[in-house]
């Protein structure tokens, strides 16, 4: 199941709700990502929250608690400008 589908499940829950209740209801849902998959219950356990006031809070907590294998290259961004004082990359002409 994609992360978007998993977060749709969280959005359908009745809030406020405890983390344990979400884990009981959706803990076995598997979230697929580029390098494998994780159980939603394991991700929820890493959030550190006991209760969520609304779906937005739960979704943001899950996004922040996903393992680093789910995000691709750590620290990589092709959109960051070259920091001041650094020569940067040579431009490439196509």
Brief synopsis:
This protein is of the alpha+beta class and 94 residues long. Helix content is 37%, strand content 13%. The chain has helices at residues 3-12, 19-26, 40-45, 55-65, and strands at residues 17-18, 30-33, 36-39, 51-52.
Radius of gyration: 18 Å
Low-confidence stretches: none
Q: Roughly what fraction of the amino acids lie in strands?
A: 5-15%
Q: What composes the largest sheet?
A: 2 strands, antiparallel
Strand order of the main beta sheet, please? Answer: 1-4
Q: pLDDT average, as an integer?
A: 85
* Helical fraction: 25-40%
Structural notes for this entry:
With 94 residues, this protein is of the alpha+beta class. It has one domain (3-70). The chain has helices spanning 3-12, 19-26, 40-45, 55-65; strands at residues 17-18, 30-33, 36-39, 51-52. Helix 1 (3-12) runs antiparallel to helix 4. The relative contact order is 0.18. The model has no long low-confidence stretch (mean pLDDT 85).
Topology:
Elements: H1 3-12, E1 17-18, H2 19-26, E2 30-33, E3 36-39, H3 40-45, E4 51-52, H4 55-65
Helix pairs in contact: 1-4
Essential attributes:
two-stranded antiparallel ribbon; 94 residues; two-stranded antiparallel sheet; elongated; alpha+beta; 4 strands; 4 helices
């Amino acid at each position: 199941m994609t992360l978007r589908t998993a977060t749709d499940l969280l959005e359908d829950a009745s809030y406020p709700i405890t983390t344990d209740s979400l884990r009981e209801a959706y803990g076995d849902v598997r979230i697929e990502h580029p390098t494998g998959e994780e159980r939603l219950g394991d991700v929820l356990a890493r959030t550190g929250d006991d209760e969520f006031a609304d779906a937005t809070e739960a979704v943001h907590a899950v996004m922040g608690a996903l393992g680093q294998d789910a995000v691709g290259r750590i620290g990589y961004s092709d959109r960051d400008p070259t920091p001041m004082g650094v020569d940067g990359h040579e431009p490439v002409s196509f």
